[in-house]
Amino acid sequence: MNNQxxxxxxxxxxxxxxxxxxxxxxxxxxxxTNAARLIELFSSWIKARxxxxxxxxxxxxxxxDDFGAxxxxxxxxxxxxxxxxxxxxxARPEIEPLIHFEGLEKRAPLIKNRPPGVPVRMGAAAxxxxxxxxxxxxxxxxxFLALLYTCRHPRSxxxxxxxxxxxxxxxxxxxxxxxISFLLGVIIAFMSAAQLRQFxxxxxxxxxxxxxxxxxxxxxxxxxxxxxxxxxxxxxEIGTMxxxxxxxxxxxMGFDPxxxxxxxxxxxxxxxxxxxxxxxxxxxxLGGLFIGISMLDLTAGAYLTETIRSITLGDVLVSYVxxxxxxxxxxxxxxLRGFQVRGGAAAVGQATTSAVVSSIFLTIVAxxxxxxxxxxx
Length: 377
What we know:
Layout: E1 10-16, E2 21-30, H1 35-49, E3 53-64, H2 66-81, E4 85-89, H3 118-152, H4 159-169, H5 174-196, H6 204-243, H7 246-252, H8 257-295, H9 300-310, H10 313-339, H11 345-376
């Protein structure tokens, strides 16, 4: 059987006899430009025809480099797998050193990368969680020391940065907090009115909206919004400084990165988030008032009177304390994830996502703790 390759780089000629003995006569050059194509071509032919003996005649090959030798080695491996005969003949003297395969009689077995089992994955997850908890405890200790130092030395506080973060965290968040809280009040009033109207208890909508916003929804929704806006921004800012070696530069210049970067963010958050929570409560009540006036035939005076009657000073204080804790957790976890960044730009995105998810999770956990404390207080 005769085959002629269309490529001018290397031609081949195949001769078969009845004893399944095949002679492959090559001519031209065998190098990096055609090695991959030749391996694919000859390998598929050998696997399809499965000859018992293969003789490669290199009399017409005038040039062969390492990649050409790999072609011959691949053919040898394919023949050795079926314990069939492989032989090279008529190689030029300058080619001989490249085709001595005596020390490569057997191909190294391929090791398949198997995914780790469940115990291995559980162990790795436990190690990661343990390391994360250790770093969190260490970081929160350094934060408290930095805050204590700032309380003892107020002049060390970077006031301009603190005011900047107060604006970014608080003032810039007022529109979105107000809009979401107003719509939340509208939804609560609208959904509850359908049930309370059956019992002629429309006035209780004011109590439901007021208690819901002040006790739970106001602090929670504000914390979630701040976590999405500011917590992610803190993580991205510090993470970018980490991968650009600015944190190491602060160490070199004698600055404490925790006092320099973290304290202004935490103080700004602790100051403005309670104010945002109060703002959220007011707009949620206004949303309920809008539904009460437009759909429930309530007067503004009656609605506000019922709202004031249902909310105590203790409820407002608990809401304030909640917002303080939530603010600290959000700023702290955002800075923590920023300091944990290692690698390139992709790590910054991962830290930002982790900061938002961790902040919301810790906020919900803290709110659950407050609920238990209030229940058994």
